[in-house]
Specification:
The complex is a heterodimer of chains A (393) and B (323). With 393 residues, chain A is of the alpha/beta class. Chain A contains 14 helices and seven strands. Chain B has twelve helices and 14 strands. Chain B starts with a strand and ends with a helix. Classes of the chains: A alpha/beta (393), B alpha/beta (323).
Chain lengths: 393, 323
Amino acid sequence: MSRPQSWVPTDPRSAPTREHVLSGLHGTDEGGAELVQLLTPEGQRVSDDRFGSWADDVGAEELKGYYRDMVLVRRVDREGNALQRQGQLGIWVPLLGQEAAQVGAGRAATPRDMIFPSYREHGVAWCRGIDPTDLLGIFRGTDHGSWDPIEARFHLYTIVIGNQCLNATGYAMGQKFEGKVGDGPDAEATMCFFGDGATSQGDVHEGFVWAAAYDAPVVFYCQNNQWAISVPLERQTRVPLFQRARGYGFPGVRVDGNDVLACLAVTRWALEECRTGNGPVLIEAFTYRMDAHTTSDDPSRYRLADELELWKLKDPIERVRVNLVREHGVGQDFFDEVQAKSDELAARFRAFCVAMPDPGPDRMFSEVYAELSPQLAAEKSAYLEYHASFEGA
Amino acid sequence: MTTMTLAKALNSGLRAAMELDPKVLVMGEDVGKLGGVFRVTDGLAKDFGEQRVLDTPLSESGIIGTAVGLAIRGFRPVCEIQFDGFVFPGFDQIVSQLAKVRFRSQGKVPMPVVVRIPFGGGIGAVEHHSESPESLFAHVAGLKVVACSNPDDAHWMIRQAIASDDPVIFFEPKRRYWEKGEVSETEPAPLFSSRVVRSGADVTVACYGPLVKTCLEAAAAAEAEGTDIEVIDLRSLSPLDLGPVFGSVRRTGRLVVVSEAPSEASVTSEVAARVQEECFHSLEAPVLRVTGFDTPYPPSKCEDDYLPDLDRVLDGVDRALGW
């Protein structure tokens, strides 16, 4: 087995050899020829024959909006990490590096569309109008998700890997059964978020099979961030993930997941395909998890810092900033204003977090069932009475 | 009152629920054109169409997982798992999603899903077709678990289960599908209730599903020998409705709990534990159990030995009386 020093590629963009893979090193940031891109890492707007038109309406104002989204989401994410380090959260799941993949997809959805997240989709939650403070309970341990999934059309976080692909498919089947697929103004679609690791789960396979069998209007949105905790993509698949769609009989597209415009365009297209009855669609957003899997993880045990350095050159936010400056003449005032807003948001996020009260013991028994059984009611009252006996003691 | 088989009683119950609420869907493997391998859904696809009676891909996790999604959308899916031993690919979705979405969302997303599972042995089948996995589900908070034993209960319990806003795992005694009985015109009892099906003074026998009939036959045989057995059909396995059992045991002082499932960490152990907590001073003998053995379900040529029958039930009763 090769040692880390021995694999340094002559061309840093070359694909990993089998040796690299076996040594546990991933070492590619190359999405290949089929990667859809509208904004290069250097901040240059480029054209794409197939998907470019889906972002034609995006001018300076819209782009500034996406920049603001990504900066705010990243700021919240960094604050989440800090709050965990300071003991205010039990764990945080960072999204650093995946802001464009999430904001591009999130902003492509209409309020009618339904979204099923995994557990890293803080950026998509943001786009659905869910206040970042609503995410805190999950990681502080005061609840399992506090927003209303029906009203926000954003399901609660799903932690068991891949489960949500079937739930999303079922929801999309329901949209179809209700006649919400077609050319009408009330057409809807569903989007399901999952990672590269999830693609090895049976539920993702079954979700693909069912969605195809029922022509369900669901966009499967895979954020390939290259790592399933410590396991590189090569342990999950022999082929690029987007190519798997072909085997199920629907289109798959690989998009530059660090390019917010490309993610927006491709997702807009995919959702419209689904709304009009041409679903399902698989999108592979090719991106990188720039931080640990969670605050409990230590990436230095399984990947090289060099890899992160390569991906830093493709930062999803920086390329938008450069484009705004160079192609739209946006001045420093705007960036200062966004910075100030993000600091404000972080302060509010932090203040909210530290002030969150612990739930009482009755919370355990709340909404286990629509109809509480006499047995559980008895358990509840016995424990609450026992608990109360310590009051004032 | 109409007389019909248990399978037909389920069929008419499903039909009634589907007529009442357009959001009720039936889904599973072979439930459409074929009418299910036991014909429980016979004719429903023809009358309600393929968008309400779904012949699904062969994928149990898919059946439960999409039912969860359909329920989030506002549907009331009734899933059929073809045989007891095939439920396990769907077990993850049942435990991780179906049972927990309501709690996770604090009531904002109800899960009115029914999972029908034909269970139990006695039909001479190959492996995985004769199991009694009910205790696995009874152990999971967020689920309700019931078992019907006769056509009247089959008809009304499936309707009540579909009307429930909680997920219900609904066990059907497959070897009783073709036995006939009367079905009432109106709801005979609430869903989550047990019922004394035979009064007696000497020993209480608690049972459910396919063995209710066996226990009633045992009671009739014992009567000829002068022993008066009270038989209670538990019907609801989670939550258990043990009030009638406690009342009975306080009179008889003796309880035998009967089930096809293995005894270890099971519904029968739960009944025994609760009865000793509540009726300690009334008991004249320890709570005894007559169950399947703690083995995988055996090859069918052994099942007459594996399954509790009339003689083994009476043996349990004798041991309780002779303590």
